[in-house]
Please model this.
Amino acid sequence: MAAEETWGYPLSDDPEQFAATTAHLYQDRVAWFSARDAGNQALETGFSYRQHAAAFIERLESIAANLEAHRNRQIWGRILRRTEYRAEEFMSRWIEAKTGGQTPRAGCGRPLHPVQIRSGEFIER
Model:
C-alpha cells in the first residue's frame, strides 16, 4: 500500500479527524484537487496494474491448477462451506415443511413480505 503521506491528506481512524479533513477538502477547492491528484498518484504507484498483474494472474493460475489442494489447506473455508450452506438448506426445508409449501406468515397472519400478488396484480399491504 502507498505510504500515508502520499495520499495528500491525513489518514485517521479518529471520526473527529476524518470529519475535519472531509469538511476541509469539501470547502477548499485547491486542497480537494491536490488531494485528488495525490490519491491518483498513490493508487498508480501503490496498486499499479503493470506491476502486480503478472504475479496475480500467475497465482490465480497456480491455485486453479491445484484447486483441491488449495481448498484442503483452507481450514476455515472448509468449515464455513460445510456448516453455513448446509444450515441454509435445512432451514429452507424446515420452513417448507412447517408451512406446507405456502408463503411463510408473520405472527399476525400477514405474509412476511409487504406485497401480495392477487390475480397478477401487486397489492400494497
